[in-house]
Amino acid sequence: MAWQQGVSGQGATIAIIDSGIDSDSPEFAGRILSQSKDVAGSRTIDGVDDHGTNVALVAAAALDGEGVVGMAYNASLLVLRADEPGSCTANDGDADLEGCQFFDSDIARGIDIAIAARARVINLSLGGGKPSSTFTNAVRRATQAGIVVVVAAGNDGDTTDPALDPNNPDPFAIATLGQGNGAVIIVGSVDDSGQFSDFSNRAGDYADGFLSARGERICCVYENGEIQVTEQNGQSFVSLFSGTSFATPQVAGAVALLAQAFPNLTGQEIVEILLDTARDAGATGTDSTYGRGILDLAEAFSPQGTTRLPGNATGTQGALALADDVAIASAPMGDALQGTSLQSIVLDKYDRAYNYDLGARTRRANPEALMANAMRTGLRNVTLGGRGVGIAFSLDERGQLDGDTPLTPLRLSRAESDAARVLAARVALRISPETQIGLAFAEGPDGIAVQLQGRDRPAFLLSSGASGKLGFAHRDGQSVALRQQTGDFGVTLTASQGEALTGAARQAQGIVGNQREGFGFTRFGIAADRQFGPLGLTLGTEWLREERTMLGAYLHDGLAPRGADSVFVDGSAALDLGDGWRLGGEGRFGTTRALAGDRIAGGSRFGSLAFSFDASKRGVWQDTDRLGVRVSSPLRVVSGGLNFDLPVSYDYATQSAVYELRRVSLAPDGRELMGELSWFGQAFDGTLAASLFYRSEPDHIRNAADDGGLMVRWSRGF
């Protein structure tokens, strides 16, 4: 994953304190620092044995199309040869440095040179008994300087020597960890399948600072800068090597990669990330064999903890989890957000910056269940009235229990309240010949306004008129309307409250269930109407203030939405042609302005439009039946969108982001058109309704399958 992101360790220095390396190897060409030296004598850095070379290969062999490639193949190498002169005699890639001797004072001297050279990690593929304070003090200085120290656990896992403890790291590693200030990792070995190596010391009592990595059967031994190949019986073989010495540089290389990719990280943070992201192995959780688990570089490079946009507050309030829905469009936006790209930057809990496409977590509203809503059963509509007073309400008795339910005035049992719920109610009062007032519960202001105005709207099962319709999913609360007749004109004032519902159930961390959330809104409107003989005209305007949404659309809290203001202009006309014939038309045009904030930039405006045309005939086959036809298009965004001020890059030096404006259109490609032919009349001592309908590009989604059908509903009052 790191390599795919272009991270190679470039700019990071790995200090290898060991038995020297083959400095002529092309695998290290141009990357051995001039500060490299023999800290135990006056020799070159070219070792007698291959141990140090193999360690360096695992950590940083070049990506050159030849041989092996190291974990951090572009990292700089600070080679500090520390073997006691004359002690190393082997030249066979021995994993245990048999015969080599290292003095604490020389290793300490190498550590101090690494500090001066500003190395990011020191690799100690060394081990042995408890070191002196000279060494441990040097380790303390290194970790205080921000350097990570990586040390081998030891290769005594299968020993029978009672003086050695295979169930704990060797004393040298334990002492290093003890002085590490949280910036030391002990490394054990696993094979290519993740099985713990028999030869490796186990984590034991030091599991919290112990990480496992592959150290078994590592390719390959080099000779004269090339992979050593042995010919035997006509076959070619390469030599592999094993040991915790070679698991250790894998972790050191991982440190270098993290240091390059995220220069803001401290040594302690790098260690914490590598330990916390390790792949669990052995017993669940931290255990006495694998320690924290097996090195998982991909996970180490993945965001950790709570993610957020730069500039957002830390904690849950400013969080923007990568699995959260970033935006849920409302119905008027249709398919507008499909395929939207909205590149940005997010930070994890370590303030590491990641490219993130916010558009990948946007969704459109779920399709509206037109037929299901129209066919609801278990509802009763009740109307009562007298001179100057009209009362209407709807009851939901879908939860009614079997058997008789005794009635007690104004005292409902739990079963009764579940069985009969008031879904909506409306009261209209005439307080003078010219003045009317209406109150409604769980109903929008358009219905009560029509009642006060005395307008006759043809009934359709599925399609609705355009005037006064919000167009997005919502739940109405309380509404009030006041109408004043002045001469030939009538003026109606309306006000209401309700909740905008998310177009779909939101997916986010911490959300359980599948419920759509509601966010408050307030509506105020004024309309004037006049009758010109058979022609009735109405013209009005409405102001909508949404507390959190924008024409019903939801944006994640991380984008700091502040709601929106919308202004609508409504117009309707109805022409009575006589003999029961009627023609009508309605239209709504709106403009919405999203309130600017930290992420919503100025100029975030969009327009919307809805219309309907209908014709109806009373008394077709019965005195009171009605046949009607309607063509309509529900509210649809026709232009404009949102401007986002988003972080697009991050400067670790200043720990600040660079912001750019990103424009997202909210106008969908699709446009729903619906035609409905309906009939209402009396049949079988009840009311019969039939509807033949057809929708093209339903829900404003281009290329969506057309929707059509026939629906028949019979109901009977009580």
- Low-confidence blocks of residues: 397-414, 416-422
How many structural domains does the protein architecture include?
A: 2
Helix content: 10-25%
Relative strand content: 35-45%
**What is the CA-based Rg, rounded?**
38 Å
Structural class: mainly beta
The averaged pLDDT comes out at 87
Mind summarizing the main beta sheet?
A: 16 strands, antiparallel
Distance between the termini: 69 Å
Helix segment tally: 10
Feature tags:
718 residues, mainly beta, Rossmann fold, 2 domains, 16-stranded antiparallel beta sheet, seven-stranded parallel beta sheet, 34 strands, elongated
What would you note in describing this structure?
- This protein is mainly β.
- The chain folds into two domains: 298 residues, 3-Layer(aba) Sandwich (Rossmann fold); 299 residues, no CATH class.
- 13% of the residues lie in helices and 37% in strands.
- The chain is built from ten helices and 34 strands.
- The protein has a 16-stranded antiparallel sheet that branches.
- A hairpin with a 7-residue loop joins strand 29 and strand 30.
- Helix 2 packs parallel to helix 3.
- The longest helix has 18 residues.
- The protein is elongated and about 120 Å long.
- The two termini are 69 Å apart.
- About 3% of the residues have low confidence.
Concise description?
Helix content is 13%, strand content 37%. It has 10 helices and 34 strands.
